[in-house]
Amino acid sequence: IMESLHFVSKPVNINALLQITKVELETPQSQPYQNTNLSQRNSQLLKGNLDKEFFEKLEHIILGNLSNSAFSAEDLGKLAGANIEVLSYKIKGQKGVSVQEFILHTRLNYARLLLSKGKSDLSEVARQAGFANKDVFFSAYKKYFGFMPGTIIEK
Question: What is the per-residue DSSP string for 13-42?
Answer without folding.
Answer: -HHHHHHHHHHHHHSPPPPPP--HHHHHHH
